Amino acid sequence: MASTSKQNNLRQELSEMTFEEIQCLRDKIGTKLCNKVLFEAKPERNLKNFHRENKNRPREESSKKQVSRFREVIPIKAKANRDPRFGDLSGTYDDKLFRKSYYFVKDMKNNEKKELKIAYKKETDPEKKQELKLLINKYENQERSEKRKIEKSVKKAEAQREQKEQLKKGQKPFYRTKSMSHKQELVEKYKELQKGNKLDKYLIRKRKKLLQKERKNEINV
């Protein structure tokens, strides 16, 4: 207590002195001792054992400790990524319902294809005409692909219906394997190409693809 009061008296005396007088005193007794009297810091609180009255209140940190640039002020919960294709929340995919709900897309594509055909007939520039032809072919290929998909789903539904009827009658149902279904699809595709006189073009394209595949295998070897 005595030392504290003595220190306070010294501070009081120093506070009444001019800057020049303080400078002279610093030169006499030394800068370290003079600063100790003037600026001696109060004892810091032990922050490790410090308990906040409210846990939601920000934590008190020492001013001497450097603050990190990357500091989490408000904790944020990490977002869990969810793939809608495999989640139960998105429901199950029904191809028939999907086609029914988005049937207007088919009408839009048909209208676009008609407009492209009209533009193709009017176009005189060979390059632009070729671009229009490729777009028309793209639409036609999509139509054929969609048609095959519908036919496939119809046949699958028919096969399932036949299997159920056989089970009701007490007969052993016939289950078609994937290889059998694939062979049946090839036969039907062959017949379709024959009707449209497109079989030769299809076989030529197939041969080209096989040759390209063989050349790539030879280069890799």
From TrEMBL:
Its main location: nucleus. Residues 142-168 have a biased composition (Basic and acidic residues). Keywords: Nucleus, Ribonucleoprotein, Ribosome biogenesis, rRNA processing. One of its GO terms (biological process) is maturation of SSU-rRNA from tricistronic rRNA transcript (SSU-rRNA, 5.8S rRNA, LSU-rRNA). The keyword Phosphoprotein does not apply. GO terms for cellular component: 90S preribosome; nucleolus. The keyword rRNA processing applies. It is found in: Nucleus, Nucleolus. InterPro entries: RRP36 (IPR009292). Residues 45-68, 142-181 are annotated as: Disordered. Associates with 90S and pre-40S pre-ribosomal particles. PANTHER family: RIBOSOMAL RNA PROCESSING PROTEIN 36 HOMOLOG. Belongs to the RRP36 family. Component of the 90S pre-ribosome involved in the maturation of rRNAs. Required for early cleavages of the pre-RNAs in the 40S ribosomal subunit maturation pathway. This is rRNA biogenesis protein RRP36.
